[in-house]
Design a protein that fits this description.
The protein is mostly beta strands. 4% of the residues lie in helices and 37% in strands.
Length: 558
Amino acid sequence: MRARILAALIGVTTPFAAYAQTADDLKNDHKTPGDVLVYGMGQSGQRYSTLTRINKGNVARMVPKWAYSLSDNRGAEGFPVVKDGVIYITAHNMTAAVDAMTGKQLWRVAHEYPPETLRVVCCGIVNRGAAIYEGKVIRQLLDNQVVALDVKTGKEVWKTKSPAPTSIENGYAMTGTPMIANGVAVIGVAGAEYSHRGFLEGYDAATGKHLWRRYTIPAPGEKGAETWPPEAALVGGGSSWVTGTYDPDLDLVFWGTGNPSPWNPRARKGDNLWTNSILAVKPKTGEITWSYQTTPGDPFDYDGVHTPIIANLRVAGKPTKVVIQANRSGILYVLGAADGKLHAANPFGKVNWTDGVDLKTGRPKFTSVYHDAIAGKKVEVWPSVSGVTNWQHQSFSPRTGLLYVNTLHIGMTYEAPEIKLMKPGQPSGPGSVKRTSVFDNENVKGILKAVDPMTGKSKWEVPYKSPNYSSTMTTASDIVFTGVMTGEFEARDAVTGKLLWSFQTPSGIVGQPVTWERNGKQYVTVLSGIGGVYALRSGDPNLANVPAGASLWTFGLP
């Protein structure tokens, strides 16, 4: 077996999660601050907590309570799940249960892979977390298997291999987190950088049975195929590697899809549906109810997988349920949750490939930078391939009405020579285009912003020497938590951006903070452990001496 128990149950005094993570529990996750059951701290993905015991008056006294080593030098991007005093955490090669009050390991399971697996995975050998449902911890593995473990023991309950053609040789890998929606574990896949055909899948969360697959690249004859060359269906990209959100009232899963393959657009002229799109999908069947494409014919790898946040905003004076996506392209989108109607689309960083978006047609107003890039000319493009934001998650506060997002401030020179379509499994990115980073301020490569979703305008901004790849989290006490690539874990005033507290962790933070309460006290948990594409490949001198090593940290008041 590729999974084995490394440590048996330890400590009989620690309560384990009861077999009660029902659909109603997941639906009400945002209302039960003692637990954190759903990726994004609730099915809406707002990463907002109603807890106020840690507030602006006392957060400066916050101290570490414990730390737990994951024994992993890869990037620590995982989302901690918290249930009944137990934290469930993942790395690419292990899943563990930890006592939330002491950091003591309760059980740990290793996940072993064939050697060829780790040679192909893009982009960063990571896992971003697990789902919890009806007594099972459900996660994806790099070799395209979905596995369910018993919450009390870590014992395998079921394991299902994703059906062909999801072989490593064809470029597929699973790095994300399942979203449990109407009893279905909806999962995505990485691999556009290895010329695959992207998809979403649904598995029965109780049994692991494979239920459906929805390809994001249409086959010849299917709707959208006219936006591709006929031979592109098997290699078109359109990954789905970042977890979406779920609205149980609409029974819709909202999921972002990634860039087309290859990066070079000259072998795939057209809009290339349904890459770089927001999809609204029925979880029982995979049926697409509506879709919206953000970057047609994307030449710049503006991978549009960012989690769509579900929120209620005033649109034309009326309360409206919307999905918000801060896109890698630099445009902040607001769409109707029920119908996909475009309500707002505005830049939230430096952008020069478009002059804006036509709200009637939904299409970008392309500039000469875009047209020259498509034609193969050398151009300077903002943002760079890393985007105005990358995969890291934003948070939304219903109190302030603001989106808190870590952004990048980096451009690039870009040139796309003539190229042919790739073959399945063939690297589709490096070498297909010529790119070099461009800066207009070497000392400001990242900016934490508090942004109005309807306008893209910042209420406040905090510059950083390197970009932050940490997700943000905000609370009802108007505190926003975020990590820094050089290792600081910070609490800032959500209204002004003022720094309220900082703690130096052992490595850079690219993780996802959560907050929870136990026995009347509030705690904050986050992973430290530098990794990911920017840290590994950018050559940023500010990060040269940041040590690797993943550890889980929990903080609270004295």
